Amino acid sequence: MTCQELLGQLAAWEDGVLPDAVCDELQKHLAECAACQELRHDLEDLARICRGCKPPRLPDDLRRRLADQLDARTR
Amino acid sequence: MSPGPDGAAHREALSRALVEEGDRLYALALRTTRDPDLARDAVQEAFAAALAKADGFRGDAHPATWLHRIVFNKSIDMLRRRRRYEPLPEQDPDQLTAEDERLAHAPAWARGPDEVLVGREARQALDQAMAELTPLQRAVFELREAEGRPTDEVAEILELSPGAVRVHLHRARLRLRVRLGEHFRGGRAHVGPGGHP
Questions:
Q1: What is the pTM (predicted TM-score) of this model?
Q2: A65 touches B at CB < 8 Å
Q3: CA A74 to chain CA centroid, nearest Å
Q4: DSSP state, A72?
Q5: B143-162 pLDDT tens trace
Q6: Nearest CA in chain B to A53
Q7: Nearest residue to A74 (alpha-carbon basis) of B12, B144, B37, B196
Q8: What's B5-81's CATH class?
Q9: Is the C-alpha dihedral spanning B192, B154, A5, B96 positive or negative?
Q10: Residues B37/B45, Cβ–Cβ less than 8 Å
Q11: Where are the domains of chain B?
Q12: What is B94-195's CATH number?
């Protein structure tokens, strides 16, 4: 497996949808390729930074307005 | 005229979705448009559209999934209406390109002292870097990476194939890695579990 092939399969690997043989090749490449290890390491940290972000909240006034609209249609 | 049983059940499902998914619906709109005013308009129009269709809803999709799809489409409509210069979803190739391969060869994040650039600064840098993505990439990143939804569910919301979702996610990650790499140059942020030092 080449670096380019690994790139194309990385997200599918995370999703667990690749055949065992491809997973084995991917893991073998990762174990031997410093550049792909660094890429994966960076992407893992990117995901952690992302999960550390405070999710935005629906503004309270908009939430109330939408709830009122739903109530009005239900009555 | 009183609502039929299907319509009443649907409105109840919408009310539940507002309570349970309101923040995430707004997050999707905000991430896609990067504009709080447009995001508000997109969510409001999405609920209006969902209500208008309530009597005709037959439960082909989970209401929350259906609402997310409407919010995304309304967000794109908002960008089109405001004539923002943003590549629209149909302009995003759903195969990996030579540009993606080039991005993958960007330098790895600098390995510096662990205490550098944690927390708020890293999150602000991520938010700024999101501007480099297309609206579709931002939506995929929000749903898959930030919210952790399964690829199949993201595909259903955005009406893409699972393979296309993976391509857009990968492309978004590569672009963000490059931009954050520039930010972190000179010192690598040490990121602990949950993004906290």
A1: 0.84
A2: yes
A3: 38
A4: H
A5: 999 999 999 999 999 999 99
A6: B123
A7: B12
A8: mainly alpha
A9: negative
A10: no
A11: 5-81, 94-195
A12: 1.10.10.10
Q: Render pLDDT for B102-113 as a digit per residue (tens, 0 to 9).
A: 888 888 777 554
- Does residue A33 belong to the interface with chain B, where contact is any CB pair within 8 Å? no
**Cβ(B125)–Cβ(B183) under 8 Å?**
yes
Residue A3, burial from CB neighbour count under 10 angstroms (0-12, 13-18, 19+): middle
**Cβ B176 vs Cβ B104: under 8 Å:** no
Structure tokens at B163: 């393979």
Which of B123, B151, B166 best probes binding to A when mutated, by most A CB atoms within 10 angstroms?
Answer: B166
Residues in CB range of B19: below 8 A, 6 or more apart: none
Q: Which residues of A touch B23 (CB under 8 A)?
A: 55-58
Amino acid at B171: R
CA distance A3 to B105: 10
Report how far residue A33's alpha carbon sits from residue A44's, in angstroms, rounded to the nearest whole number: 17
- Are B157 and B65 spatial neighbours (Cβ–Cβ below 8 Å)? yes
Q: What is the ipTM of this complex?
A: 0.89
Residue whose tokens read 């009406």: B159
Residue B142: predicted pLDDT: 94
- In DSSP notation, B163-181 reads HHHHHHHHHHHHHHHHHHH
Dist CA B79 CA B58 (whole Å): 30
Give the phi and the psi of residue B107 in degrees, each rounded to 5. -60, 145
Q: Report how far residue A9's alpha carbon sits from residue A4's, in angstroms, rounded to the nearest whole number.
A: 9
Tokens at residue A38, please? 């660094």
Measure the CA–CA gap between B55 and B7, rounded to whole angstroms: 4
